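stage 2 :: seqdesign
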């Protein structure tokens, strides 16, 4: 079968690989009818989320049709249309029973201390071959696979595989209540779904911070108040627009590949931090392989954490949904402690 395969930082290929087989009684084989690219995939290809094993099939967002089930899969049959969640979980350990599926004790073959098991991830996450392929093996299929009604198209269903729940989780972790003022840093797919989720949860004012015009326009179309960090200092502008108080909630929807402003007042405010940020990039992305402007790691790994913490009002909440690696070690803990911030 054809699959998108990781061969090294900056090196992914469309390869012919063996079709997956049932290994455990709780497995299912799914024929993919739709798959998508996540920002997490980009972190791995850029080298800012290390530990990938050569030959791993990428991808953790998928929709498909069940082709085969193991003998202990009792709620699915061949021909069922399903969405495949990115996270793999057993469904019976104490964490799964408490709703913390990402902390499952049994899904990760490296042991329960290694953390979340997910498709197409680094060695420490399994590794499990991913969903950018014609077929995939889905462990613990009874727990993970979500049946789809016929009236829901693949292009709609794939949003619940990972990206919409991620944005909703970001909003939920921010403890948003009706009327709260929220700043969303990053207006890529996660940021856009976070904005949509904030509106569902009744947030009052929503500020969207990015610099790419199409992203800002999409955020504005959702009703967010937009800030271009290459045109304005985002912290100063957020304080100005909230009468000096700051925002009640801030959401980091960027993660380790954040970029700093390279012009305008934002660039001037970042200048004193430049040397520190450059050192962070070297520590986090120890192997890089950019090609023709692609696979470039971000040049300011911890900047959004600084901005979000500075922009929050006292006793505010910071929700971090952006991905960081174990090598990410910089956080403005003093500012957070002195403001009595809650960090989720």
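stage 2 :: out
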């Amino acid at each position: 079968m054809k699959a998108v395969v990781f061969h090294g930082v900056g090196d992914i290929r469309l390869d012919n690989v063996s079709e997956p087989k049932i290994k455990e009684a709780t497995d299912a084989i799914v024929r993919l009818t739709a798959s998508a690219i996540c920002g997490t995939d980009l972190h791995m290809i850029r080298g800012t989320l290390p530990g990938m094993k050569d030959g791993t099939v990428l991808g953790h967002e998928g929709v498909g049709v069940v082709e085969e089930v193991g003998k202990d899969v009792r709620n699915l049959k061949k021909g069922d249309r399903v969405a495949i969640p990115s996270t793999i979980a057993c469904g019976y350990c104490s964490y799964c029973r408490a709703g913390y599926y990402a902390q499952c004790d049994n899904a990760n073959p490296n042991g329960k201390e290694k953390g979340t098991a997910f498709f197409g991830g680094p060695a420490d996450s399994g590794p499990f071959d991913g969903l950018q392929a014609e077929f995939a093996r889905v462990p613990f299929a009874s727990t993970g696979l979500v049946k789809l009604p016929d009236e829901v198209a693949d292009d709609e269903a794939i949003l619940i595989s990972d990206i919409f729940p991620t944005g909703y989780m970001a909003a939920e972790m921010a403890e948003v209540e009706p009327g709260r003022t929220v700043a969303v840093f990053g207006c890529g797919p996660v940021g856009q779904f976070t904005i949509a989720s904030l509106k569902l949860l009744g947030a009052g004012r929503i500020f969207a911070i990015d610099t790419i015009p199409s992203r800002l326009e999409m955020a504005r179309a959702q009703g967010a108040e937009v800030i271009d960090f290459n045109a304005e200092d985002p912290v100063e502008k957020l304080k100005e627009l909230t009468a000096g108080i700051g925002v009640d909630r801030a959401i980091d929807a960027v993660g380790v590949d954040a970029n700093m402003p390279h012009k305008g007042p934002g660039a001037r405010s970042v200048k004193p931090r430049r040397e520190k940020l450059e050192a962070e990039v070297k520590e986090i992305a120890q192997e890089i392989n950019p090609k023709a402007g692609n696979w470039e790691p971000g040049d300011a790994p911890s900047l959004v954490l600084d901005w979000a913490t500075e922009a929050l009002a006292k006793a505010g909440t910071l929700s971090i949904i952006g991905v960081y690696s174990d090598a990410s070690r910089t956080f403005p803990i003093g500012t957070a402690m002195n403001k009595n911030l809650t960090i989720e």
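stage 3 :: structure notes
- The longest strand covers residues 312-320.
- The two ends are 41 Å apart (CA to CA).
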